[in-house]
Write a sequence for this structure.
């Protein structure tokens, strides 16, 4: 392990980088599962807080971590570009490993100037999810990003899509892509302000109010663990609405009411929709699929994100 120069720890995973004597930074890859990692003599640096668990009520298990950077004593990362890249890449690595294309895309978009200084490395890291990241950014959110603004992702996604702009549009390429293979998408729910599903629970709030001082730390930990498990186990219904008078390709999102579930009742409440453009592409590719397998992967006061298996 002493030969490893730079390591990033994200949850249960370790990712390795190297730096040559001439200053060239390179991504070695994910450390094999089960390999013993000893960083006792390494410099530990916490990753940038641009990805912070504090802004979420819930994230999927694979992302429930704060990445840390470990640098061997023989390795110099003090130059601005290397240090900035390594400080931010940990969260992106974790998002790609978790197959959360929407989060990976948003993390890249927010720090693209840092990542594009080592565009070959960033492109290689995002390559397994390039098409799904492009779909999420261009079609999945209300504040859509043009493919022209993310050439690094677009160029890599074109390879996965086998996209030829002289023969088809990008939408048509995604329809063909979704027809040909099984995909996992991560997309935000839109229109949530029109519905009454709440991410908060009166049951848990009441438990917090009844904490006793002598067992404060233990009780808070137990309540948060129970709350996290409740979010993780919420059932999600993602269903087509061909009868919708506004949009025949609409895909509605319904999530169980938290307090009703805690009381032993499974009560679904409409939460919103998949963005219309994304829904149109999905429904065109899968016209006979009326219900999609889905789960909650991110939840904050401003955003609900679903993982969708197609």
């Amino acid at each position: 392990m002493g030969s490893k120069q730079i390591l990033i720890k994200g949850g249960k995973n370790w990712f390795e980088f190297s730096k040559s004597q001439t200053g060239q930074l390179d991504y070695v890859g994910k450390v094999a599962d089960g390999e013993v990692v000893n960083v006792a003599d390494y410099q530990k640096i916490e990753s940038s807080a641009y990805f912070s668990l504090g802004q979420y009520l819930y994230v999927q298990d694979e992302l429930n971590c704060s990445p840390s950077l470990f640098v061997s004593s023989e390795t110099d990362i003090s130059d601005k570009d290397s240090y900035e890249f390594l400080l931010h890449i940990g969260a992106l690595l974790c998002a790609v490993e978790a197959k959360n294309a929407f989060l990976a895309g948003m993390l890249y978009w927010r720090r693209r100037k840092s990542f594009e200084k080592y565009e070959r490395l960033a492109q290689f890291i995002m390559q397994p999810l390039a098409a799904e990241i492009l779909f999420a950014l261009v079609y999945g959110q209300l504040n859509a990003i043009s493919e022209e603004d993310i050439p690094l992702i677009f160029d890599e996604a074109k390879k996965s899509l086998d996209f030829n702009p002289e023969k088809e549009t990008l939408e048509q390429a995604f329809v063909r892509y979704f027809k040909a293979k099984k995909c996992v998408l991560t997309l935000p729910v839109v229109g949530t302000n029109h519905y009454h599903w709440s991410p908060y629970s009166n049951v848990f709030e009441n438990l917090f109010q009844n904490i006793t001082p002598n067992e404060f730390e233990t009780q808070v930990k137990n309540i948060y663990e129970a709350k996290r498990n409740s979010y993780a186990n919420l059932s999600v219904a993602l269903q087509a609405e061909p009868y919708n008078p506004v949009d025949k390709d609409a895909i509605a999102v319904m999530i169980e009411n938290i307090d009703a579930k805690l009381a032993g009742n499974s009560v679904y409440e409409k939460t919103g929709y998949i963005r219309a453009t994304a829904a149109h592409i999905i429904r065109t590719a899968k016209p006979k699929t009326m219900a999609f397998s889905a789960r909650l992967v991110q939840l904050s006061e401003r955003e609900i994100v679903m993982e969708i298996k197609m």
In short: The first strand starts at residue 6 and ends at 10.
